[in-house]
Amino acid sequence: MTYEHRIPLALSMTCIRHAYGTVQAIDGLDVSVSPGEIVCLLGPSGCGKTTILRLAAGLEDIQEGEVSLNGQVVAVNGNNLPPEKRGVGLVFQDYALFPHLDVIDNVTFGLIDWRASDRKARVAYMLEMVGLTDVAKSFPHELSGGQQQRVALARALAPKPRVVLLDEPYSGLDARLRDRVRSEVLRILKSSFSACLMVTHDSEEAMFMADRIVVMRAGQIVQLGSPAELYCSPSGVFVAGLFGEVNLIEGRVRGDTVYTIAGAFSSGGLPNDQNVTVVVRPEGVHIDTYSETFNCGICCEVDQSRLLGSASLINLSVRGEDVKVGKTLHLTARVSGIFLPLPGTRVRITIDPSQTFVFPRSDPQ
């Protein structure tokens, strides 16, 4: 007989339902985080992401469902373990540093039950880990946004929590600083082996940080998976659109093919005669030089071109032969490098099937 030793989930939330008055904020949600794993809750404002974080931290009393930390139930049937007894590290949007305490004392705050020698060693280790040893005696108002963010993270990780909760941790940083800080935070979290549940509305941030992403909408999970799974195999128009701008093309299934103004696509097994929406990512629209004799692809006209640095964004108009007068399909193409055709330029396009998804027209957007 063999025995399998299973490491308990760092965080498990099952059958969670939570309402504010008549508004159902969370409607039957299950989410879990394994030790050392980073899971991102991704979705638009008001979808329930922050409520889930507050329930996990104990800042909200659970109404229905169960919350467990490291295999121990901390909230169920209206019984809630207080936040200070859960051993969870929490980093707020505004970092919530104590303005009257310097960096050392801010990081020390959660270690009051530690022996003085252990406390001092742990703070020194955390400051070295987040690269703030040189500003240890500085106060929050003397620090940059990125430094404040790292102080908050050091304070959250100092007591060695098995679970860290991050609520939009980079929302107050400018774009350049945000890119650098999130790289540092990812390194710190992975080296600490803490489980992390993070809230964000930024899909790029979620893809960069997360091992798994939970896409939420109206208090429910729409899709859960790795960043690659969600990007390459979205469950619907809503999920596809969360991960960047998309082109939406109306079509109709005939046999095993969807016919549209922009060409024909595989129906993906959808039933015959169904109205569908074809989703095409801008990087899946390939532009070729127009030629009267070489007629492969769909004829388009350039509306405008914009350089975005490492890529160019081209807005196109497609006018098919069977399109009603006055009806035009507008598409966006993303091309690597500098490619800036003038407005009015005629081009031909082909569409990459790997960047194309077909969904029933009734799929909510």
Automatic annotation (TrEMBL):
Residues 11-243 form the ABC transporter domain. GO terms for biological process: quaternary ammonium group transport. InterPro entries: AAA+_ATPase, ABC_SmlMolc_Importer, ABC_transporter-like_ATP-bd, ABC_transporter-like_CS, ABC_transpr_FbpC, Mo/tungstate-bd_C_term_dom, P-loop_NTPase. One of its GO terms (molecular function) is ATP hydrolysis activity. One of its GO terms (cellular component) is membrane. It comes from the Bacteria. Keywords: ATP-binding, Cell membrane, Ion transport, Iron, Iron transport, Membrane, Nucleotide-binding, Transport. Signal peptide: none annotated. SUPFAM superfamilies: MOP-like, P-loop containing nucleoside triphosphate hydrolases. The keyword ATP-binding applies. The keyword Translocase does not apply. PANTHER family: SPERMIDINE/PUTRESCINE IMPORT ATP-BINDING PROTEIN POTA, SPERMIDINE_PUTRESCINE IMPORT ATP-BINDING PROTEIN POTA. This is ABC transporter family protein. It comes from Candidatus Endolissoclinum faulkneri L2.
